[in-house]
Amino acid sequence: MGGQLSVDPSVHVVIVGGGFGGIAAAKQLRDKGVPFTLLDMRDAFHHNVGSLRASVQTGFARRTFIPYSETFGDSFRQGRVVRVDLEAQVVVLEGGEEIKFSHLILCTGSDGPFPGNLNEVTDRKTAIEKYEDIVKEIQAAQSVVVIGGGSTGVEMAAEVKTEFPEKKVLLIHSHIALADQELLPCVRQQAKEVLLEKGVELLLGEKVHNLSDLSLNVNQKDMKLLTDKGTELVADLLIPCMGNKVNSAAYRSALEDKMAENGALRVNAHLQVEGLDNVYAVGDCTDVKEPKMAYHAGLHADVAVGNIIKSLAQKPLSSYKPGSVTMLLAMGRDDGVGQFNGFRLARFLVAQGKSKDLLVWKSWKEMGQIDPK
Predict the structure, then answer these.
(1) What's the gap between Cα 363 and its chain centre?
(2) Nearest Cα residue to 47 out of 18, 27, 69, 71
(3) Which end of the chain is less congested by CB atoms within 10 angstroms, N or C?
(4) Parallel, antiparallel, or unpaired for β 245-246 and 237-240?
(5) HEC assignment per residue over the chain
């Protein structure tokens, strides 16, 4: 863990967002004895790598929410950050409470539709119930349409078909190729082959035209879908897996001139927000050219915290350098595809390494708590 530092009383790091990058930063600051406050809308860390499994498997959701307070005690505060004031060096919570910082780490992540994301002010019990409710909706439906064929949509379709092989599952995607474009073409093709092997039907190169008129995540028999190419479909349940975007609400008013077009923050090699030496960005909200993944957020946190500590000691800062793309897609609990350092992995390796348990055990271990399997 390394020794604790002697820190000036004026030093206080505020971490906005308790995702993978946020908890990695908080753990390192705690272990070094640097005062910090971790802020998140929920009262529990969401291991959202497991959110799709929690949507199809009864009882899995409780393993994907890990209480913050048991790990970080009084250094955790629940609340939504609505504004950052750089001049006063405070973050402002909904309700008006202000928390002062000497250094700020922004880990606000991405936002998108439920069940892949759950970005709202809530408690652990309510969050778990929300996932248990969608399990029941999927159980009741005879036909399920997954909308969006990026990596989330591909994994969602595979999860539903693996858990409920008797159901009709259709994935609709506006492009021809599936999954993330950063993946090797052979891995993207393999994801398609696995879905077809499982019996998932694919409608590619078409977009749902009447989506705003339809109910999402609710079993409603014989809903009529119409695509932009004129295809008409009927389904009982629609699960949205498209439209993820950078969650910039907390910092937009203060840092709009530092933002890329997609809302991500422009950072230098040290992960400092452009032009600001005491504000860092970590994970999905950075404009670093690499896939947005939990693994990368953890690497960013290492660099950001290391550089805060180095700056306090007036030492040269470290740089972050993106590496080769490593990405694993869980195709249900029994299969998977992926690549490591630019090479395609065997499906059984991905199934054993990720798909079987979705690395839930790892987050409980990192939070210093016992996984309630």
Answers:
(1) 13
(2) 18
(3) N
(4) unpaired
(5) CCCCCCCCCCCCEEEECCCHHHHHHHHHHHHHCCCEEEEECECEEECHHHHHHHCCCCCCHHHCEEECHHHHHHHEEECCEEEEECCCCEEEECCCCEEECCEEEECCCEECCCCCCCCCCECHHHHHHHHHHHHHHHHHCCEEEEECCCHHHHHHHHHHHHHCCCCEEEEEECCCCCCCCCCCHHHHHHHHHHHHHHCCEEEECCCECCHHHCCCCCCCCCEEEEECCCCEEEECEEEECCCCEECCCCCHHHHHHHECCCCCECECCCCEECCCCCEEECHHHECCCCCCCHHHHHHHHHHHHHHHHHHHCCCCCCCCCCCCCCEEEECCCCCEEEEECCEECCHHHHHHHHHCCCCHHHHHHHCCCCCCC
Query: Which residue type is seen at 305?
Result: V
- Confidence class for position 1, pLDDT limits 50, 70, 90: very low
Name residue 157's amino acid: A
Hey, CA dihedral for 211, 329, 263, 283, is it positive or negative? positive
Lowest average pLDDT, out of 11-15, 132-136, 324-328, goes to 324-328
Read off the tokens for 365: 């271990």
* Across 234-261, average pLDDT: 97
**CA atoms of 253 and 184, how far apart (whole Å):** 38
Token code pair at residue 265: 């923050």
Give yes or no for a contact between 264 and 287, defined as CB atoms under 8 angstroms apart. Answer: yes
Q: pLDDT-based confidence at 2, cuts 50/70/90? A: low
Q: Cα–Cα distance between 115 and 143 in angstroms, integer?
A: 18
d(CA 255, CA 87): 12
| Length of the chain, in residues | 373
The model's pLDDT over 45-61, given as tens digits with 9 standing for 90+, comes to 999 999 999 999 999 99
Q: CB count, 10 Å around CB of 8?
A: 10
The answer to whether the beta carbons of residues 91 and 253 sit under 8 Å apart is no
Distance CA 94, CA 161 (A): 41
Query: How many angstroms separate the CA atoms of 193 and 174, rounded?
Result: 18
